[in-house]
Every structure is written in C-alpha cells, then in structure tokens.
Amino acid sequence: MTATSHGRARFLWAAVSVVFVETIITGLALAPAVLFIHWQSTWSLSTWPRLALASLAFVPVYLMCACSLMLYSALATKALGWRTPANVELPLSEYSWPVLHWGRYLMTIHVVRIFAGPAFRSTTIWNWYMRLNGARLGRNVWVNSLSLMDHNLLEFADGVVIGSDAHVSGHVVERGILRTASVRLGRNTLVGIGSVVGIGVQSGADVQVGALSVVPKFTTLEAGGVYVGVPVVRLH
C-alpha cells in the first residue's frame, strides 16, 4: 500500500470514528430528554395541561442535555487523546495521526459550541468545560466568545477577559501546512470585541487589546500596554 493509500485509509477511519463518537456522545446527552418525553406520555392528564407542563420543562431539559454534552465530549476527547499537537508544522495532505487527532478534536468542540455554547458562554460552566477539555484557566476568567479553538493550547492567567466574538486559536493553516503554538495571556489581560489573537501570542499582566484588533502570531505584548489596530500597535 502506498503512502497516499495509507493516508486515505487513516482519513476514512478518522471520519468514521468521529461520527461514531459524536453519535454516542449526543445520544447519551439526549437521554434525559428522551426519558422525560417517555415519562410525560404516561401522565393521566388531558392534552392541554400535558402540553403546558411539557413546554415549561423544555428549558430545564435543554440545559441538562447541554451540560451532559459538554461533560461527555470533554471526557471522550481526553480518553481518546484527541488534542491539538503543540509546536508542529505538518502538511494536511498526508493525513498524519496528529493532524487527524486535531481535526477530530476541533469537530467535538464545534458540536459543543453550537448546541451548548449559546446558553453557557461567559459563565463558570463554560470555563469548567474548557478546563475539562484541556484549557488552563486561572480564577475569575470570563470567556464571552465561542470562537476559541484548540483549548489544550490556551493558557489564561487570573482575571483574563475575552470579549464577544473574539477569536483565539492555537492553530493556523498556511499553504496546506498546519502550524500550532500555545497562546498565553497574562493576569488581567483584556481581549476586545471581535479581535483576533494569533498562535504563539504571549501577553504580560494588565494588557488591553482594543476591539476589532489583530494580534499577529508569535507577538509578545508587554505588561500594562494598550494595543489597537490591524496589526496591533502599542498606544502607551
């Protein structure tokens, strides 16, 4: 079997395995809703009271399912070793195992942020999920964005605030090459609304990144600085 054939076989296995795992995870997460619907069907009530009670139960059941999805997804990726490899430069076309682990890891994060993210972003529950999924977060960290990827490559010190729709990622794909590096944000760093923080970025304490700014990859932001622009420049 040629190297190309090996790569295609690995890709096929990765695709099948992530669908299988997501099917199991989602099924387990939906179990409370299915059990509730079954239980509700046994109520000896007329149609309208039954529908009214079922409607009132929708939000609690959804929140329970969303929490279950976060828990099972994080535990599954940890057990299976699906993580973004640190400090690598790998061609996507070869479908190496580190690349496939990365792809499956991002897929599970994507599913969680669609179904659970809108309810729990900027809460301690979302921080709990990110920690369980590999992120290293200090105390009083607030993440008000669903555009954070590669959780295992993110390290936020105490008091870090990530604004709405800010994008922080530990990977970039350039000309078919996957490049990764950790992002480390120092104490009380603020990343403004809609900003982009590239791979390998490090910040000192009390740094502020203005809204809609871009911090290029491998940039070091000095402590106490205020940075704005595309790319960012220090104001003072």
Task: Give the neighbour order of strands across the main sheet.
Answer: 3-6-11-14-17-18
- How much helical structure, as a percent, in the residues? 40-55%
Beta-strand residue fraction = 15-25%
Q: According to CATH, what is the class?
A: Mainly Beta
Q: Class by helix and strand content?
A: alpha/beta
CATH topology: UDP N-Acetylglucosamine Acyltransferase, domain 1
What does the average pLDDT come to?
93
In one word, what is the shape? Answer: flat
**Would you report the number of β strands?**
18
C-alpha Rg (nearest Å): 21 Å
What is the H/E order?
A: HHHEHHHEEEEEEEEEEEEEEEEE
What do you see in this structure?
This protein has 236 residues and is of the alpha/beta class. It has one domain: UDP N-Acetylglucosamine Acyltransferase, domain 1. The protein has helices spanning 3-40, 47-56, 58-80, 97-115, 117-120, 124-132, and strands at residues 89-91, 136-137, 142-143, 147-148, 154-156, 161-162, 167-168, 171-174, 177-180, 183-185, 190-191, 196-197, 202-203, 208-209, 214-215, 220-221, 226-228, 233-234. The chain has a six-stranded mixed beta sheet with strand order 3-6-11-14-17-18. Strand 17 (226-228) and strand 18 (233-234) form a beta hairpin. It is flat. The model has no long low-confidence stretch (mean pLDDT 93).
